[in-house]
Amino acid sequence: MKDIYVKDVAALEDGTEVELKGWVHKIYDLGKISFVKLRDKTGIIQIVIDESLNVKLRLEMCIAVKGKKVKNEKAPEGIEVQVDELKVLGKTYYDKLPFAINAGKIKAALETQLDHRTISLRAPKITAVFKVQEKIADAFKDYLKGQNFTEVYTPKIIASGTEGGSELFTVNYFDHRAFLAQSPQFYKQMMVGSGFERIFEIGHAYRAELHNTYRHLNEYVSLDLEMGFIEDEFEIMDLEEGFMNYLFKYIKKECSAELKLYNIELPEEVKIPRITLFDAQEILLKEYGKRSPKGNIDNEGEKLFAEYVKKEYGSDFVFLTKYPAAKRPMYTMPDDEIEGATRSFDLIYKGLEITTGGQRIHDYEELVANIAKMGFKTEEFEFYTDNFRYGMPPHGGLAIGLERLTMKILGLDNIREAALLPRDMKRITP
Amino acid sequence: MKDIYVKDVAALEDGTEVELKGWVHKIYDLGKISFVKLRDKTGIIQIVIDESLNVKLRLEMCIAVKGKKVKNEKAPEGIEVQVDELKVLGKTYYDKLPFAINAGKIKAALETQLDHRTISLRAPKITAVFKVQEKIADAFKDYLKGQNFTEVYTPKIIASGTEGGSELFTVNYFDHRAFLAQSPQFYKQMMVGSGFERIFEIGHAYRAELHNTYRHLNEYVSLDLEMGFIEDEFEIMDLEEGFMNYLFKYIKKECSAELKLYNIELPEEVKIPRITLFDAQEILLKEYGKRSPKGNIDNEGEKLFAEYVKKEYGSDFVFLTKYPAAKRPMYTMPDDEIEGATRSFDLIYKGLEITTGGQRIHDYEELVANIAKMGFKTEEFEFYTDNFRYGMPPHGGLAIGLERLTMKILGLDNIREAALLPRDMKRITP
Q1: Which residue positions does UniProt flag as site: Important for tRNA non-discrimination (chains A, B) (predicted)?
Q2: Burial class, B28, CB count within 10 angstroms (exposed 0-12 / middle 13-18 / buried 19+)
């Protein structure tokens, strides 16, 4: 077992004996001695190997070294380890690495990097993405647990789709046809009703969308929450705004090195303007001559509107509110004031939708009527609607795409860069 | 939004105005006044409703009440709320509840309880199961994060099965046939190799096993970990033993009320005997006249052996070690000392296997040779084995079934009781 990491060496006294284990990151072979960069989970350190040790190192070999920590002004960070003993722990079996990971930015197409994901992930700048991603999920969890939310695990194998069966992957489940959940929507609501009141889930969601774009994955991690006993959808927006403030503080503290690597400065405070979809469409038309599709804003519109909000409000975020009922799922609560609108919202961050949320219908009869009105067969949803017969509190919630949020925080170009092992229309390996 | 919960009322001064929201748990209608038990996420409290408020309450209705907190020696816990205002937040639409949840143990078959899961979950004793389950997952996460493990999310849609395709659900993935991951095994190992060194994942796993027993689910939550730079499989056992000690302390602290509800006393310290499978088989034969299947112990054997270990070692746990290679997957590290054995183990807790783990083969050539030796097509596993060409440290890991651990800690009879919404051969709803 490892008991010391590269990051711990700097604090040790000069001359201390250490045993380090990691990967051979770089080799400068000077004949009599070699300067080698050893990489582990926590950093990179220079080690000095005398030819008398008689080992033939290759890049990315796994090794264990014993030696003395010494100061050396010429070494990076001013320290190095003079190796007395070296053991190869993991041999290599390649002619040539698929690409270099020790020379700054990887010079290979993203697809090639993903084909060799366990190599590209070794590059410190790419590892950093997943450090940040882990901390986003931690922040989500911490923030919600602090507000009396319960974490749940709901099934991903389901009998009917949330929105009537489109965009679902089918699973051969014994003698049945089942589906992969495109969101935990139904179950989140049911868990609120079953007495948990406030729940969240961090889990996979599946979309059989025929999109192969920079912002779509067919399997992604969804940060989902649902909260009972609300007055309106604005409480859900308040909660998300609170989360974003918590998150940015958390990441600044936990991931300062990673943010620096990506030249990211996060704002001190997040204050998110709330603009109705209708108003946003009007602004797009007036300011940019941009026409929007009925009841929505397209990808180009999202980007233009983000520009506008940045200019007018100084914010990277904007809530678009009051989407029309025709464009929202059948469980969305109708708005009291605006005819045909709903108590719903999207959150746009740097021009990309990262959240959909809103208040849901909680009255059984209203829900069943709305399902019928939208043209679905009510009996197909009885496993869901029947739960609403037994006292369901007013409630609402939201979902944040973890990869999208990671991508936008770090300014990545493609969502595949924010997934350890992305799944898209063409990729189910590695 | 709720700002006060039932559990907070006791600490308030007498006469304080409170607004509580929750479900109608029990009604004693005395005509002029009614004593009602109001239930929320945190507990149950008596509220007193005068007939002048003119509301017809039904069980499980969602209500909000405003009133004064007062002392009343006759009330449970000695306090109640005298209601001035009452609002129905969630109406009910039923003729009769499927079963009573306010009269102690639910008098309905488990299948009926699961058919109406959002009702059975409202019973405080059943809610308690998921409080404990949540804390188990929290403890796993805390314990591992404290030891430099990284949390990861790996794909559940995969191209080939871990053990060659048996017991896999197939997914129609665009033009391909894909599978649901029966474990994150391959990806855990790959992530260790890609520089994370130590990783864990809490996620769903899928087994298309044709078993409908008290201890099988077809979709379950797996607590998975994998650790690089180990010497042997005993380090993985040490880690798990450490986790169990951490877990029990954690649960005793966080879930004392829930443990009390189930009459569970957890031991102060967990010290787990380690016995080879061969020795265990010999003991079973000698002590109980019980013959075991070749290279394994069956369900009855596990129970008998648990009895033996409890008697001889005073332990609810036992590690069975050194399983034969023929009974372990192709990635299992062969043992150096015992011919035909592997560096593997199971953890049995109160007579049920809750963990499988061990050291894995990390050398590329050895792995490929072992895959071929076990009769699989090596080319089908190239997306996995190719990663071993680039320096893989010695490593091992384990997986704990979350529902099994929950079930055994609380002494539940059926694993379905430890899943919010279980999936088995016959159940994909609700």
Answers
A1: 76
A2: exposed
Q: Is B14 on the interface with A (CB under 8 A)?
A: no
Single-letter amino acid, residue A316: D
Closest Cα partner for B225 from B367, B395, B419?
A: B395
Count CB atoms within 10 A of the CB of residue B426.
Answer: 11
- Rounded to two decimals, the ipTM of the complex is 0.97
Query: What architecture (CATH level 2) is domain A6-90?
Result: Beta Barrel (2.40)
C-beta of residue B341 within 8 angstroms of C-beta of residue B331: no
DSSP string, A248-278: HHHHHHH-HHHHHHTT----S-----EEEHH
pLDDT in tens, A31-78: 999 999 999 999 999 999 999 999 999 999 999 999 999 999 998 889
CA distance B356 to chain A (A): 20
**Which ranges of B81-123 would DSSP assign to H, the alpha helix?**
110-115, 117-120
If you measure CA to CA, which chain B residue comes closest to A196?
Answer: B41
Q: What are phi and psi of A26, to 5 degrees?
A: -155, 150
Query: Contact A153/B430, CB-based, under 8 Å?
Result: no
DSSP B216: -
Mark the binding-site residues of A for ATP, compressed into ranges: 207-209, 215-217, 353, 401-404
Binding residues of B for L-aspartate: 163, 207, 356, 360
Contact call for residues A208 and B171 (beta carbons, < 8 A): no
CA distances to A63, A79, A103 from A33, rounded to whole Å, are 17, 17, 22
> Is A248 part of the contact surface with chain B (CB cutoff 8 Å)?
no
Separation CA A118–CA A231 (nearest Å): 48
Residues B262-303 have pLDDT tens digits of 999 999 999 999 999 999 999 999 999 999 999 999 999 999
User: What are the residue boundaries of the structural domains of chain A, listed by start?
Assistant: 6-90, 124-418
Q: What top-level class would CATH report for the domain B124-418?
A: alpha beta
Neighbouring-strand partners of residue A416: none
> In chain B, which among 207-236 make CB contacts under 8 A with chain A?
208, 218-219, 221, 227, 229-231, 235
